[in-house]
Design a protein that fits this description.
This is Glyoxalase. With 142 residues, this protein is α+β, with helices and mostly antiparallel strands. The protein folds into two domains: 1-56, 2,3-Dihydroxybiphenyl 1,2-Dioxygenase, domain 1 (Roll), CATH 3.10.180; 63-142, Roll (2,3-Dihydroxybiphenyl 1,2-Dioxygenase, domain 1). It contains two helices and ten strands, in the order E-H-E-E-E-E-E-E-H-E-E-E. It has helices spanning 18-28, 83-95; strands at residues 10-15, 32-36, 40-45, 48-54, 63-67, 70-74, 76-82, 100-107, 115-121, 127-133. A hairpin with a 5-residue loop joins strand 9 and strand 10.
C-alpha cells in the first residue's frame, strides 16, 4: 500500500503498572497523555495513538531473532526518526541510564538500508526499537 498521506497507527499494549508507564512514556519519552482511566492511558506516541492497558497476565516472556549479529527482541514496536532526532533521543536515554537491550549503533552500514537503531524495554518489558535514517527515501530500499 502506498499513500501520500501518512495515517497514524493505533497500538494497545499490556502493562502491569500505570504509574510506571506514566513515568516512562510521559516523563522519559516525552509523550503527551490523552484520555485515561484507572485501567488504561492513551499516549501521543510521535503522532500515533499508543494505549497502555493494565493487563499483567498478557505480558510475554522475551523472545528474539538474530539480525546483524544481535538478538533482536520479538515482538517490538517503535518509530522511525530523522537521524538528528534519533541522536537526540539516544543521548537522552543514555543520560537517563536506560538499560539497552541493544545499544545505539549503525546497522547495515554502506548498504541501501543503512540505519541507526536501538532497542530497550518499557517498565512492563515491552520491547521498543527506534530507528534513524539520514535519508528517509531508504526506508524500504532493498
Amino acid at each position: 500500500m502506498s499513500s501520500n498521506q501518512v495515517m497514524p497507527f493505533h497500538l494497545a499494549i499490556p502493562v502491569d503498572d500505570l504509574t510506571a508507564a506514566r513515568r516512562f512514556y510521559g516523563d522519559l519519552m516525552g509523550c503527551a497523555e490523552g484520555r485515561s482511566s484507572d485501567q488504561w492511558v492513551d499516549w501521543d506516541f510521535y503522532g500515533h495513538q499508543l494505549v497502555t492497558h493494565v493487563a499483567p497476565e498478557r505480558l510475554l516472556p522475551p523472545a528474539s531473532n538474530p539480525v546483524d549479529g544481535h538478538a533482536v527482541p520479538v515482538p517490538h514496536f517503535g518509530v522511525v526518526l530523522k537521524m538528528d532526532d534519533w541522536k537526540l533521543l539516544a543521548e537522552r536515554l543514555e543520560k537517563a541510564e536506560i538499560d539497552f537491550v541493544i545499544k545505539p549503533y549503525i546497522r547495515f552500514q554502506g548498504q541501501p538500508g543503512e540505519q541507526a537503531t536501538m532497542f530497550f524495554n518499557d517498565p512492563a518489558g515491552n520491547a521498543l526499537e527506534f530507528k534513524g535514517f539520514a535519508n528517509m527515501d531508504n526506508l524500504f530500499a532493498k
